[in-house]
Amino acid sequence: MSKTAIIFPGQGAQAVGMGKDVAQTFDAARDVFDQANKILGFDLTSICFEGPVDRLNATDISQPAIFVTSVAIWRALEANGITQEWAPKAMAGLSLGEYTALHLAGWLGFQECLKLVAERGRLMQAASEAVSSGMVSIMGLSELEINKFCEEAAQDEILTPANFNCPGQIVISGAKAACDRALGLADKCGARAVPLTVAGAFHSALMAPAVEGLRTALAAANITKGRIGVVSNVSADYHAEPDTVRDLLREQVAKPIRWQASMERLIADGVDLFVEVGPGRTLTGLMRKIDRSITVKNFSKADALERVSA
């Protein structure tokens, strides 16, 4: 019998139309979108389903949008009895997706988690607007090499590894000029560099104002130990207690996301089936680069849910 972990995507997975087919097909999913609209006080559903794309891509919108869409898909799976078949042993989520995991694993209620995610998105958007910054995906360098690469391109500005996604793919984050230098330096180092369309330097020291802003929100949040273990992006280990959840979620905004190490921890614990729930297929692709022997299922569209429930 497979040992299953559920994984949830982070920012960048958003696309206009996400969740629309699921909400039209499954009442349980539509209810999640309706509830989110009431909690947030604006029509998030319309932005997810119809756009405009520039509004959906804004950090303060995309983060709650991805969270709500992921939860809606999970609730549709749950309503059709599919989640019982997996009996997940653990959950994890990439960056923002860690909040989705903590909610569905029983650590945070929906309303509380959605409000935290919305505040996180607002704070990260504000921090991004305060300074010219960006992120670049680097392919072909090791962790040791990427540290030296960042030092050379930084030239006394901030430029650090931000996402250790999978073997050979590391995202760096920092000042705009430093990111531009990294793009020019990559060829000389035998690497390939792709600038990312993001608001700012997530998971770097430039997010310090957002870290401080989250301190108050997380301190007030009602976090209880959940029924399912959740792996932290920062430590690549399981969350232990509510207080450490608060600490690690706060640190996560300005520290590297260790996704590869998190997945390798779950694989070492015997997980041999990963189920990606949420918009897009990013995590499915990353897992195939981390360990091709692992089975990965993806649920982002209504037809995938219908095939399983039929």
What is the string of SSEs from the N terminus onward?
EHHHHHHEHHEHEEHEHEHHEHEH
Number of strands: 9
Structural class: alpha/beta
**In what range is the share of β-strand residues?**
15-25%
Main-sheet strand order equals: 7-2-1-8-9
Stretches where pLDDT falls below 50 for ≥5 residues?
Answer: none
- The total count of helices amounts to 15
How far apart, in Å, are the first and last alpha carbons? 22 Å
Q: Helix proportion of residues, in percent?
A: 40-55%
What is the residue-averaged pLDDT? 95
- How is the biggest beta sheet arranged? 5 strands, parallel
* Rg (C-alpha, Å): 19 Å
Q: Report the principal-axis shape.
A: globular
